[in-house]
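[Automated response] Your request has been received and processed.

Submitted sequence:
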Amino acid sequence: MSPILAIIVLDMNKPMPEHFDVLIIGAGLSGIGSAAHLETELPGKTYAILEARDGIGGTWDLFRYPGIRSDSDMFTLGYSFKRWDAAKAIADGPSIRQYIRETAAEYGIERHIRYGHRVVRADWDSETALWTVEAETGHGRVSLTARFVHWCSGYYDYEKGFSPDLPGVESFTGRIVHPQHWPEDLDYSGQRVVVIGSGATAVTLVPAMARDAAHVTMLQRSPSYVVSLPGEDPVVDWAIRHLPRQVAWQIARWKAIGLTTLSYQLSRRRPEVLKAILRRGLLRELPDGYDVDRDFKPRYNPWDQRLCVVPDGDLFQAIRSDRADVVTDTIETFTERGIRLTSGRELEADLIVTATGLNLQMLGGASLSVDGREVAFGDTVAYKGMMFSGVPNAALSIGYTNASWTLKCDLICEYVCRLLKFMDERDYAYCVPVAPPEGEPLDPLIDFSSGYVLRAIATLPKQGSRPPWRLNQNYFRDIGLFRRAPLDDEGMRFVSGAEAASGRPASEALAA
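Generated structure:
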């Protein structure tokens, strides 16, 4: 047999990749939401969910540290199509995980999930108008094809949290733990604990651990904005007791959206006013004579980073009871017994928790190519904050930085279904976003001063100065942009099935 014929025979014996209309990457909050929208809006579409882990829940399945809870109210972090029925607005991690699982069961999504499938690569071919997606499994690498890929894998590295260089860390004889990798066997009862950090994770850990630890110190280099909110809203509680359940839920949802939007707009237009409001709240919560400005006056404006929410002031309760304290200083070095600060003070500890943040990562670390060319996301421009110039038939769910994650993801899922219907009706094989005209100004995609964003800013897509390339941080504007604005606007090119079959690459569609 000739070598060429042998190759042909081997290729014929090779099984064809399994094919789907849509591949969803990730079975967390946004991935299950995407599948639920497909089930209800496009029931004829075939789809699969590729999940790297062994369970549903994403972030809420990964993080298991003490006190893990939402940093947004559940009336908006929950789905638009499934009520959050509990009165408690700030929910614990297990309750959120159970809510996601209930949604998957209710919409018949579970049978579509492929667990243990870590997507490592996706390659687009314009001639076939298909993505070939490769995933690593416990039995080797598998390939699947899809017309459309919806990435719902979040935007941080699930494998490793961020840990800065800590001088002298090898000297410490106690235990050091990162919250992203919380050991199941960790018993800190009666121990002296230092939590390094000042963000949402730190302000969650401190009061939760203070219940059992001998003492907990939150060591921060600089303060964050911290606001106390009632765990159960009295207005919402009244609505639940006196009105039909659906009506009460809508009141709770729109009240939360309105207040968050008002807070953000006030922070942009009158930051000093919002600072004063937040400071008055702190003065009510902290002991008389407490140095509020030292420990709770950030150097930035509100909403330049997310506000840290503490339900029912639990952090401040721990401080008032002397079970916890806050120290604002910098680390000179770790010692055998704890941490020596620049001021000369030494914090003795049995356990140190490094709540020092996340590593931002696009697409779960997967690589992308379009017609043989590798995609560098730092060179792309976002379209409506969910698709990227030069990348066909692919969307990414990223939530708001100034409101609940799911508010934006719900709109993106609706838009994906609307886009797929539009292409089916007009026999389009694929769509590909285009960058704004040359010379128009570009900005970083995420206008946020958090460390995890700044560390990765060069690898992130850009955004334009106007729609549809501008990323809104406003739910009310996005409702119009995602639900009613034309799909065939200046930022999108559509390619027919005949054009695709002719071998025209996506790059030529961009130039058309």
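Summary generated for your ticket: The chain has 16 helices and 25 strands. The first strand starts at residue 18 and ends at 25.
If you did not submit this request, please reply to this message.
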